[in-house]
Amino acid sequence: MIMKFVPFAVLAVPAFVAAHGNDHARLYARQATSSAPAATGTPPATVSFSLPTTNPTAVPLASITSGTPVLPPLSVTTTYAAGAQPTFLSNAPPLPDLSKVLPANYPALDKVPPTDSPQVQQWIQDVANSGITIPNITATVAGGCPANPQAAADTSRCWWTCGGCTRDDDITTCPDKLHWGLTHDDGPSPFTPNLLAYLQQANLHTTFFVVGSRAISYPTLLVEEYMAQHQLGVHTWSHPDLTTLTNEQIIAEFGWTKKVIKDITGVTPTHFRPPFGDVDDRVRAIAKAMNLETVIWTRISPTATFDTGDFNVAGGTTSPSQVLANWEQIMGNATTISTGFIVLEHDLFQQTVELATGYILPAALANNPALTIQPVITCLHKDFGDAYIETNNNSTNPLPVTASGSGSSGSSQSASGTNSGSGAQATGGSGKSSAARVSVDNLLSGVVTGGVAIVAGLSALL
Question: Of 57, 169, 245, 411, whose CB has the highest number of CB atoms within 10 Å?
């Protein structure tokens, strides 16, 4: 292990940030207090909240805003030599040689990958051979519930976006009361080291749901997350609304993200979180056929999900005080349920990281009654090795598809299905989803100013 200075630069601005806040706002099952964006040109409302404590070095809330200068990310990171052995994980393979992980060998950043490459065609065949039945469910169109009234009314598809439907094998809570399955989505980013430093200081571990396009942009950060004993999960390659994609496109999103994580760390995650929580039975089945378990955040009513709303601060549609009021509400709701809980937070922007390290996590550590804060895999009482295919012994976390490719249940069916929304051609929802992203470029400009462009003049993280 070598400690060295590694200055940061933004290698790629994620295109999905333009739609992230808007898509979060239009989903049905979100925290009611953070669902409505502020009017154009109107600062987001400041609301009252009460926390048991804060970090003495926290950035003042007044400085955690969109479009204002932010502090630079930490410039010290831990790097590991190729071949280093993860000693915390039994039977883990040695770390790969990152010099051989070349961006040119992966799809374009933040775009749904093509489905005609030999690699994706092999994954499509693997899904067809898995023994997992892929339901014949028509893809949705961009726009959420209002744009898809028939799909929203169809309870048989179990579409989480419209109604919060879950299946028994969806992971939405920790089994034990007041146990928090800590998660952070959308990274790694230039600000992830700030979060990693706090987590190490507080002796905490999280589950990072990784976007493939960010992983290939910041491979050493992904290795650092992994070697610091945080759980890695899949969060797709380009962060789309998965129900709008064809079967083949969903397979490509999962496949490339699994591959890049394995190419960088040597291990393949067994869990995924759908962007925006957008999952139905078709997406679930494809995930299962690719040995991925679905993890969403806790939802206890149509107007109360455990979503801090932190992502929207960078875009200027939610105030930091609103995020902390949301957290206070989440803590109140956590005491009313018999299980533990999982919360939606992000490590993509400095605003989200500063709120976590300066306010939310210190308050959680001081909470009364006390919380047990763990990665999702740990809060489920599973061995940490179950988080990855290479270290899963199939005893406490049997994989849906065995190494031989035979599924545990269901009959074999082509990944293409028979409906036009899930057909063999890479058409349908993806184009509409891309159009939706383009339509909110005005939000992207605010996000870049507030959270990313500040580090553009620094040298690269490689």
Answer: 245
CATH (domain of 265): 3.20.20.370
Buried b (16+ CB within 10 A) or exposed e, 174-213: beeebbbbbbbbbbbbbbbbbbbebbeeeebbbbbbbbbb
Provide the 3-class DSSP secondary structure of residue 143.
coil
Bridge partners for 87 per DSSP: none
Pairing of strands 2-5, 231-234: unpaired
Q: Is 185 a catalytic residue?
A: yes
Whole-model pTM? 0.83
Average of per-residue pLDDT values in the chain? 82
pLDDT in tens, 368-391: 999 999 999 999 999 999 999 999
Cα(265)–Cα(3) distance, integer angstroms: 18
What CA dihedral angle connects 242, 448, 223 and 54, to 10 degrees?
A: -100
- From the list 185, 186, 241, 278, the catalytic residue is 185
Answer for the pair 458, 74: CB distance below 8 angstroms, yes or no: no
The count of structural domains within the chain is 1
Catalytic residue among 184, 230, 235, 346: 346
- Domain residues for the domain of 155 are 13-38+103-436
